[in-house]
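WARN no homologs supplied; continuing
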Amino acid sequence: MRIFSKKTLALILASSMAVTLCSCAGNKAKSDNTDSLITIGIPQDLDDGLDPHTAEGAGTREVLFNIFEGLVKPDSNGDLKCAVASDYNINEDGTVYTFTLRDNVKFHDGSTVTVEDVKASLEKCMGNGDEPLVASFGEVLKVETPDDKTVEVYLKEPDTDFLANMTVAILPKDHLDASTELIGTGPYKFVSRSPQENIILESFDDYWGEKANIKKVVLKVVADADTIVMNLEGGSVDLMARLSTSQASQLSDKFEVCEGTMNLVQALYLNNAVEPFNKKEVRQALCYATDIKEIMDFVSDGKGTETGSSMFPAFGKYYMEELNDTYNTDLDKAKELLSEAGYPDGFEFSITVPGNYKQHVDTAQVIKEQYKKIGVNVNINLVEWDTWLNDVYMGREFEATVIGVDASQLTASSMLQRFVSDSGKNFINYNNPEYDETYQKAAASVKDDEKTEYYKQCERILSEDAANVYIQDLPNLVAVNKKFGGYEFYPLYVMDFSKLYIK
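OK structure emitted
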């Protein structure tokens, strides 16, 4: 098996992607795991569907990561390692990716993965019409299977970074509709789901790689952020990620708290298509009126990292710390810009926030108080996660929202492509011809330094154009009952259940 090192993603990602401030390891139990069980709290149900090719919610992808695998998959260091494939080769100009299938990889239904399954899965991502099901697969020209061990992916244009897209799930060719049947190749198989209550997974005995240490994983939906500590202390939840600092401080010594980063860009995302956010001066005024340090101090005790554009620090060579100073707090400048835009007395707008994410709710509350200083009144509209997903993200029926946007893959494009004007993921309705042109230049370049510079130009445009009010990459505080160990942070918004074990 070959690790992707030709243009290794360790160069794309910072070497220190997450810091663990506790001992989440321990003496791993190697005994029979037949009756072993862990209950993990999750903030929302998988309401955006169970299909790994179309799921939008980061929380959904976090769960599906354990059930489905691609030809390659990321590890906790940010390297892409072979999974369903045992090896791969990329031709010199980055137009043909050739994969060798791993021997005897089993689906959860007991059938063996074939090249036909891989071809069908990739062609599903390509879509049947003009619009690909998975945006990045618009680059794919065709998929060929010259023999029963080889899959060749041909691209329309050279792309030396396309390997990261091969993390898309491989499904049985006769069960491509994963919304009804979850049949993957991962270390855990789907057992059942009780909507708004729990999802139950069980370790897959015929998994090709290292078997999971814990037999049964119950994912308990804890949608009310105010009950997280009670669930942990009461014993109904053994592990929960993304706690606030106040929640973590309330835990007893039954728990260890690990600290990493969420690997996302938290921002006040603005609908650029509605008044008054279709005016650059208004968006800039809000940026000048925002005190990032005050937000970070209130929401996360100063923890986290400021972000001045749509890139978080783990993407080391792309992250531009200097953009944090594009709009330093200046209330006089904010009022001046509002007057220029025709709002000398300010205006009123609503921030729609999913109520199950305490950090985002707290951030909205600080913003509300800060904007009073420039005559802007904010209404906070708390909604359930599925409502936010349907109305804000999918329906684009909102004025502003506080949320964190993550990278679906280990590529800069997964953060920046969503702001191209015709992107289906462009939920803020951003429209800037200069940005579109610069992004296309980045996508077309095969020279790493040139591609990097174009992506940085994209970040600079988003920052200077005040596409959103950028805030921070939040800290990720994970509460782990001391009975368990093995929690590892990834440079993506995922959680690897198979690494967990009973001490």
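Confidence is low (pLDDT under 50) at residues 1-23.
OK
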